[in-house]
Structures
1.
Amino acid sequence: MISILPHKFTNDKGFTLLESVISIMLLSITTLGIYGIIILAQESSLSAKYTTTAANFARMKLEKIMDTEYTKITQSYVQGTIYDANPYDDVSFPASDPDGDYAPSLPSAKWRVEYFYPNAGTDPLVIKLKVFWKEKGANKVEHNIQLSSKLTSGRI
């Protein structure tokens, strides 16, 4: 091979310091980007887990309410009362949840029942159950899920 540069300026034996620094910078930028994506995926997965747990808990509570005798629903569940759903956050849990159910792994979860007759005291009774919680970590935004159902006095 013929070169126009003097022999002391050509080096085919390895990397220069500049090439090494540039490759380390590119590798670190790529690694940080991938790390950010992994963290975001973990947060999304945890949020989905909490939402699924809350939905299952709300479904379970609504089924229990619907299994209650029609005339006793308004006596058993006080309108608008907020019940704790997690015994690990509140020492008075057994007294505050009339059914003794709880939502495991749902941080600071609470639930509330609302009911009303849309047609001035006649059937059907509309029951709304709302579960709300705050996720752990930096994002302490309150989340909630609400289920509702209609119930008539002539049900089997």
2.
Amino acid sequence: MLLDTWFSSGLLPLTARGWPNLDQDFKRFYPLSVMETGYDILGLWVSRMASLSKHLTGEGPVRRVLLHGMVCDGHGKKMTKSLGNVIDPIHVVNGVTMDQLHQVSSEHHERGLLTQEQLDRAHQGQRLLSPMVFRHAVPMLFACHCLKTK
């Protein structure tokens, strides 16, 4: 039996405690105390999990949800591998030239991960960085920019 990822993930708080057997162990540990997650999946996963749990048990899956911040790029976009806007830790440790940064972005574009517009925006943002800034301060720069834009 194959279940949709979001649906089956929504079952986790229930099945981890032995559902559908509502024994003493289930009653002792359900609902869970806390769940830590990002706001970006509230509608995709957390709300489905809450609805499913409420429907099947009469209670929500957790007592408290803690939302963590998101690391964003210089344009305020969430950093993801699929967009190709993540910071490679090796670049942070060893430094990187502007040509190398452009090459990585161009490869993402060639593989279909970035549109031409996203590639142009990436190159524009990269030109704003000096190699020394990128080597030492980019993670903090992006995190601070993201916090200021929210």
3.
Amino acid sequence: MPIPRDVLERLKAQDQQLTALDFSRYYHLTTADIRDLTDALRGNPHVVELVLCDSEIDDEGACFLAAGLSTMPSLVELDVSANHIGNAGAAALFRVPTLKFLNIAANSVTDEAAQQLLENTTLHYVRLNGNPVDTALVAKIDAQLDSNEQRELAQLRNELNGFVADLSLEELKLALAAVKESVQTQANKAVSAM
């Protein structure tokens, strides 16, 4: 079943209320459906989470999906578990530059594709269970992804320290208040979108 046209139109219009999308289980997405979705999402700065589990996505669909998602500056979480994604599709998804969390459990990913995660520098967490991947390799991947997160955290702390060093006490208080307000606004949007 294709994604409803009204939802695709809202995505094309970059509706700020659409930050977390769940098209799982209800939709059996064809490659054409994936093309429609990625066209609608192209460049979207608001969507941070996309769930497409149990949607009948194959390697071809996953490759189209990865290409489209690579244009989204804010997407950090993708769930494509319980599909029919093999090594080619997984390899493409591993290269989506903004992703931090990828659930690709219960697909057909093997050691061949999973090995590529040892070279990945952007992902923080990948769920691989239910795929024929060696447990020793999974442990190595987990260590690599943990180091990605620690490296990014250290970079952000350095940037923040450099920024904060130039601020007065009053500017720091204003900046902290603005961050708190922004976090609360995002949390409220996430709750209201449910």
